[in-house]
Amino acid sequence: MSMKTRWQDGNEQREMTSPLSLVISAFAPRGRRASHPYAAAVNGR
């Protein structure tokens, strides 16, 4: 996966290709749902 751009610098045509990074996140259930007592009160749990 990459990103390519082109531009003109005076009379010269320029081009650059840069790699892109892919960020993958995973989520897992936690034992305790409310990380703060206020969040539990607002959600009614």
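Next protein, fold it too.
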Amino acid sequence: IQLNALLGKRGHSLKDLNDYWNVATYFELHAVLHDWSKACQAALHMYLLNPPIWYLKSTINNLKILHKATRLRNQERLSYEQSSITTAHEHIYSFWIDFFSEAINSNSTLCEER
């Protein structure tokens, strides 16, 4: 939430950001908040920045850590009804996670073959 405030204070919107790490932080924040729409916007922006693979590896590893911690914390609070609802934005978010993970895995395979 503070990141949104900082972006607003600096007069920037997500589309104005050119620094991968600012966009990735925005992506991670909204993924943790389950704001799938904003997370997907950030994922697309990350893709368009064409970052090195190790940037994506770092971001995906951060998300794995954050999701594991969040899942453990919320596990007792989630009801079956809440956990079974999947939004369209959540599906798109899942696409981006799979896409970046595949890019990381493909690059690792290529590096190992060399």
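About the second fold: The mean pLDDT is 79.
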